[in-house]
Amino acid sequence: MNNLIKGRARLLGDNINTDTNCSSKYLPGKDNAYVAQHAFEKVAPAFIGNFKAGDIIVAGKNFGINSSREQAVHVMHLMGVAAIVSHSFGRQFFRNTINNGLPALECDIGGIADGDEIEIDLASGKVSVAARGIERTVPVLPPAVRAILAEGGLITFLQKYPDWKAA
Question: Which helix (H) or strand (E) holds 21?
Answer without folding.
Answer: none
